[in-house]
Write a structure and sequence with these properties.
With about 190 residues, the chain is an alpha+beta fold. About 20% of the residues lie in helices and about 40% in strands. InterPro entries: Chorismate_lyase_/UTRA_dom_sf, Rv2949c-like.
Length: about 190
Amino acid sequence: MGQLAGRQVDVLGRIDGEQDAGFALPPVTRMLLRSDGSTTRLLEALLDQALSVQLVDQHGDTAGALPAHLREVLGCVADEAVVRRRSVLVTADATQVSRNEVTVVCRDSELTSILTDASTPIGHGLATARRMLGRIRMSTGSTRWADEIEIPCVYKEYVLVDPAGRAIAHVYERFNPDYVPHGVAA
């Protein structure tokens, strides 16, 4: 067992003894949820095709407008600049593979530019710029694929950190269950 941001992480990548509560996850889903690498690249490997990004919404704000838990996770103060971004990763035929919500703290202008590029998936932007960011997984689990539709899917929530360990962005990703299976009742 190791520790990551005050949380216990076991050799299987489970946080604080997490269990697959109520449903058994297929191996490919467990691999994606427990990975500490680029989600974009993993999804592209899974689908054997390149993905592109479609921006749903992106706007600047101050951290004071964020929920308290996000300010705490990102370690930011109320007057710091942030960018809120909602996007989807899509296949060549525009099928949605993941739905993503990202909050970037604007502490590093190069990273802010990479993480808010409207035409490049974050994983591609970081790789092209040769910027390596750590990922601290906050949670994984079951949710709905679309807010208005009761289709179960899995999600992953994590924080991107720079080499000094400073939080740069909070990421929440939901995965299309047609590609990343939700699991079966346990």
